[in-house]
Design the sequence.
C-alpha cells in the first residue's frame, strides 16, 4: 500500500527505456555522480546531474527500493525527482 504524498515528501519517478523501477512518494534518494555519493531530501535546490554506475537507493518511509544502474541522468525540481537510467 502506498502512502499519500505530503509537502514533506519527494515525488520520484525512476525509469529506464523499458522498465519503471519506482514511481511514488519518497523521503530521500541516494545516488552517485563523478563528485561522489549524494542525497536528495525534500526542499532540495533545483539540480541536474549525470549519474555514475552504481546503486540508487530510494527511501519511501515504509520500504527501501534499491537498484543498480550503468549510467543515467537525474533532475530535481520542486520536490520532483526524475531518473532516466541505463540509456
Sequence:
Amino acid at each position: 500500500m502506498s502512502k499519500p504524498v505530503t509537502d514533506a515528501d519527494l515525488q520520484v519517478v525512476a525509469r529506464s527505456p523499458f522498465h519503471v523501477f519506482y514511481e511514488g512518494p519518497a523521503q530521500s534518494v541516494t545516488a552517485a555522480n563523478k563528485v561522489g555519493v549524494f542525497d536528495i531530501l525534500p526542499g532540495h535546490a533545483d539540480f541536474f546531474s549525470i549519474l555514475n554506475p552504481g546503486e540508487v537507493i530510494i527511501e519511501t518511509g515504509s520500504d527501501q527500493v534499491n537498484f543498480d544502474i550503468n549510467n543515467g541522468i537525474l533532475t530535481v525540481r520542486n520536490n520532483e525527482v526524475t531518473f532516466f537510467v541505463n540509456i
User: Anything to note?
Assistant: Residues 13 and 23 are 4 Å apart (CA to CA). The radius of gyration is 12 Å.
